[in-house]
Design goal:
By secondary structure, the protein is an alpha/beta fold. It has a single domain, classed as Rossmann fold (3-Layer(aba) Sandwich), CATH 3.40.50. The chain is built from ten helices and seven strands. The protein has helices at 16-28, 39-48, 63-77, 102-129, 150-169, 189-202, 206-229, 233-245, 259-268, 271-281, and strands at 7-10, 31-36, 53-57, 84-87, 133-137, 177-182, 252-255. Strands 3-2-1-4-5-6-7 form a seven-stranded parallel β-sheet, sandwiched between helices.
Length: 282
């Protein structure tokens, strides 16, 4: 018999970290409401565990869909409420801030920031009812802004602030809020982002490539490496489980190859030296 039980909502559950979290939490004994956007993903997840995994159609930018999903969840959980929310849905927009189209930057912020707030607001009563916890999927980029990842880093820096504010606001109800800060993880987000960003990058003016060509190519290669050689998403799922179930969860979880050393360096080195190190490695 499983040690755990309860209800958890995970957004962006169709692939990568979200899928790994869904399968891991279901294996632990939780009923997982897995937020997906496509029918094929819903069917595939439910085939993994038809009793513990309940797909819900959830586009974090679609207010009507959020309301419908929350209504479905509320009817299903009843007085038990939700024991956890994992805000995992997100995208990565890559390119020099000097030339990135504003509409791409806006979409980055809308999905990675506004979308997380929208879902959180919609399920807070269910979480309060179930004395639940919130886990926000941030990034190492929420601590350090790498060249060409300015838009993505901005969204994750914002999510860090939201995590801190929510944790302090919800403290009277003993509702913990944690931030997961992965470094290089083997996840399709980078491959997906490469494909999505190819259109944007291809449309940049020639001047952009004259000024940033080497860094753009380095970013492409780096994204490809991240998609293949990073830490398995299952390792992130274990950390998420700790944040949701531990008696004394951390407020921040840093994981991934070279992630902790980089965080340490950001604490002890002056900005000018970090800038030089970054320039030399990019």
């Amino acid at each position: 018999m499983s040690k755990f039980s309860g209800n958890i909502l995970i957004t962006g559950a169709s692939t990568g970290i979200g899928e790994a979290c869904t399968l891991h939490m279901a294996k632990l004994g939780y009923r997982v409401f897995a937020g997906v956007r496509k029918e094929k993903d819903a069917e595939r997840l439910q085939q993994q565990d038809s009793q513990k995994i309940v797909p819900v159609y959830l586009d974090v930018l679609n207010e009507k869909q959020i309301k419908q999903a929350v209504s479905q969840i509320a009817e299903s959980v009843g007085d038990n409420g939700l024991q956890g929310l994992v805000n995992n849905a997100g995208i990565a927009v890559v390119g020099p801030l000097e030339y990135l189209p504003l509409e791409d930057i806006r979409r980055q912020i809308e999905i990675n920031v506004y979308g997380q707030i929208a879902v959180t607001q919609s399920v807070l009563e269910l979480l309060r009812q179930g004395q639940g916890r919130i886990v926000n999927m941030s990034s190492l980029s929420g601590r350090f802004a790498f060249p060409l990842y300015g838009a993505y880093a901005a969204s994750k820096f914002a999510l860090e602030a939201i995590t801190d504010a929510l944790r302090r606001e919800l403290a009277p109800w003993k509702m913990h809020v944690a931030s997961i800060e992965p470094g290089v993880i083997r996840t399709p987000i980078w491959e997906k982002s490469l494909k999505t960003n190819e259109t944007t990058l291809d449309q940049l003016p020639a001047e952009a490539y004259e000024r940033y060509g080497e860094r753009i190519e380095a970013a492409r290669k780096g994204a490809a490496r991240s998609g293949k050689g990073g830490l398995p998403p299952e390792e992130v799922a274990k950390v998420v489980a700790h944040a949701l179930t531990a008696r004394r969860p951390k407020t921040r979880y840093v994981l991934g190859r070279n992630a902790k050393p980089l965080v340490f360096l950001t604490r002890i080195l002056p900005d000018w030296l970090l800038d030089r190190i970054t320039a030399a490695s990019s």
